[in-house]
Amino acid sequence: MSGRYDDIHRRSLADPDAFWGEAAEHIHWFRRWDRVLDHDRPPFTRWFVGGETNIAYNALDRHVAAGRGDQAALLYESPVTNTELRLTYRQLRDRVALFAGALAAKGVVKGDRVVIYMPMVPEAVVAMLACVRLGAIHSVVFGGFAANELATRIDDARPKLIVSASCGIEGQKVIPYKPLLDAAIDKASHKPDACIILQRSMEKAALKPGRDTDWQEAVAAAKPADCVPVKATDPSYILYTSGTTGIPKGVVRDTGGHMVALRWSMENIYAMKPGEVWWTASDVGWVVGHSYIVYAPLLHGLTTILYEGKPVGTPDAAAFWRVIAKHGAVALFTAPTAFRAIRKEDPEGSLIGQHDLSEFRTLFLAGERCDPNTLEWAEEKLGVPVIDHWWQTETGWPICANCMGIERFPVKPGSATKPVPGWNVQVVDAHAQPVKRGEIGALVMKLPLPPGSLQTLWHNDAGFEKSYMSDYPGHYKTGDAGYIDEDGYVFVMSRTDDIINVAGHRLSTGAMEEVLARHPDVAECAVIGVADALKGQLPLGMMVLKAGVSRPHEEIAREVVQMVREAIGPVAAFKTALVVDRLPKTRSGKILRGTMQKIADGESYRMPATIDDPAILSEIGGRLNDAGYPQKE
Ligand code: COA
Ligand code: AMP
C-alpha cells in the first residue's frame, strides 16, 4: 500500500502541470499564466509562461491587504551590536517601498542589475525586496568574499547600482566593507552609476562625491514606489556560486516558479503555518539565506528571524537557544557545522535546558553532509526531529528531505531521506546508466526540473548546458555522488568535482590553485579538502617550488595564505600550505588529488592503475604525517 508521500511524489512527476498549477493558486498573479510548464526547448524549462506577478507584492503587500499588517514580518537579533528590531508586515512593506523609490530615483528600472554587498542587517533584506518590487535583478555578494571576487561579480552582472554598508561585524571584529567595495569597483572594468551606502555607528565610510549616497539621505528624499508587474519567467536574481574554476557561475532564478516552489516548500517540507516564527541561521549572501531567511517565510506569511551573530562566541554557545526561546521560534534551519561548534563548547548541552524551548518542534540541517554524530547529538539534546536535507544553490530549494508536512519517515542518520515531490532523482554510472540500488554513482535529476530551480547561467546558456546538462543527456548533473538504499532513502556522500565544503560554505579548490600558481616561487600546486572536525572540510595546499628557490618554506607558505585571503577572502579559511618535492600524477599528467585527500584523511586507498610513479604517494604520505595529518578529533 502506498502512503501519502508516494502518492504525492508520483503525481508531481506524472502530471507536473496539474500539480504545480494547483500550488500556484497560493500566489497572487496580476495576469494568470497561459501554460504551467514549457519544456519545448530542453534542457531549458520555463514555468507559468504568460503569467505576470511580483515577488514583493506576494511577500508583503498581499499579506497587509489580507489583515496581516500588524504581524511581525522580520525580527532582527544582533548580539554583536546589542540591538534588536521588530518590523511588522506593514512596516517592512513601507520601508521596502521607500527604498524602491530611492533606487528608482537613481534610475533603476525593471531588468537592471543591483549588486548588494551587505552584512546581516535589516537593510539587506529591504534592499533585496526593493529590487524585486521594481523588477530589478539583485545579486547579493557574501561579505566574507574579498574585493577581487566582488569585482568578478560586478563585471559579470554589470550592475547599474551597488548597495553596501560601512562595515560588517564578525564576532568581536569590525570589518570595514567600503574599502573592499571601492577596491572592487577600481578593479572591475564595469563601473556602476551609483552606490548607496548604509553608515553603521561602528564605522563611518568615506563617500565618493557624485557616486555614493548615504542610505538615510537616499531614503529621506524618496517617494514610495509601487510593485512593477513582471513576467513569471523574468529573472528575479543572480547568485554566484563556486564552479570548478576561479570564475563563479551566475545562477539565474526566475520569478513565478521560484515563488510557487518556495511557498509550497514551507508548507509541505517544513510544515510551517502562516503566523508562526521561523529562523534560518545562515547569511543572505548564500542561497539558504535568499530562500529561507527572506523569500519563502515571507511568501508564506511567517515571521522570519534575521540573526547577526555566530552560534558560539556572540556571546556564548547558548545564543541559539536564547533567540529561539525569546521569540517562540518553532523551527530552526542551519548548517551542521553550527551544531558542531555548539557541541564543542557545550558537549553536554547543559545550556539548552536553561531556556524554554517548549514551542520548538523541528531542526533542519543542510549545506553540507551531516555526520551522524552531530545529528544524533542534536536529536538527543533537543528532543525534536532533526531533519537533514539536501540541496544546492542551483536548485534553490530542497531536492531530498523528510517532508514534515506530508508524511514523516524514520530518520536514517547520513541520509537526506527521500526525493521531494517534483524531483526525479536517479543514480547513474559514467555512461549515464542507472546503477543497482545501494551502489554509489553520480546523483542526477531527470528533466524537466521542478519550478524554482535555475533557469540558466547569467548570459551564458552554453555554460549552463555544458556544466549541468551535457554529461548525462536528459538529466541535470548535481556534481554530487551518492546512493539510494532499498527503502528509497538517498545518501549524498561526496562531490565528483573539485568543490569543497568549508563550514557550510561552498568553495572551489581550483580557484585556490589558480591563486597559488601565481606565486613567483611556485612551479605547480594542488589544493585538496581535508576532513575537519569543526568545519567539515578545510583546504590544504601542496606546492612544488621552482628549481633554485632557496627561501624558507614557511615564508612562502605564509605568502600564499595571504594571497588566497586577499584574492578569494577570509571565508576560504585557507591557512595551510605545504612544500613537497613532487606531486603524484597519472601518466597523462593529471594530479591525483582524490588519492592525496584519502591519504590526508587517513582513509584506505587503491593505487591508481594509471599512476606515473607510485613512490611519490609514500613521499606525500610522509610529508603529510610530518605535518600532523591525518588529524584526530
Ligand atoms: N564578512 C566578513 N568576513 C567573514 C564573514 C562575513 N560575512 N563571514 C565569515 N568571515 C570571515 C571570518 O571572520 C573568518 O575570518 P578569520 O580567518 O579572520 O577568522 C573567516 O571568514 C572564516 O569564517 P567562518 O568559516 O565562518 O569561521 P568562524 O571560525 O568565524 O566560524 C562557524 C565558524 C562554524 C561558527 C561558522 O562558520 C558558522 O556559524 N557557520 C554556520 C553555517 C552557515 O552559516 N552556513 C551557511 C550556509 S547554510
Ligand atoms: P551550496 O550550493 O552552497 O548550497 O552547496 C551545495 C552542495 O553542498 C551540494 O552539492 C552538496 O555537495 C552539499 N550539500 C548540501 N546539503 C547537503 C546534505 N544535506 N548532505 C550532503 N551534502 C550536502
UniProtKB/TrEMBL annotation:
Which InterPro entries does this UniProt record tie to the protein?
A: ACAS_N, AMP-bd_C, AMP-bd_C_sf, AMP-binding_CS, AMP-dep_synth/lig_dom, ANL_N_sf
All copies of the AMP-binding enzyme C-terminal domain together span 512-590
Task: Give the Acetyl-coenzyme A synthetase N-terminal domain ranges.
Answer: 5-59
Listed GO MF terms: propionate-CoA ligase activity
Give the record's GO CC terms: intracellular organelle lumen
**Keywords, ordered alphabetically:** Ligase
Q: Which PROSITE patterns match?
A: AMP_BINDING (PS00455)
Q: Which residues form the AMP-dependent synthetase/ligase domain?
A: 63-446
| Top-level taxon of origin | Bacteria
Q: Name one Pfam family in it.
A: ACAS_N
Query: What family is this protein classified in?
Result: Belongs to the ATP-dependent AMP-binding enzyme family.
Q: What is this protein called?
A: AMP-dependent synthetase and ligase
Which organism is this protein's natural source? Oceanibaculum indicum P24
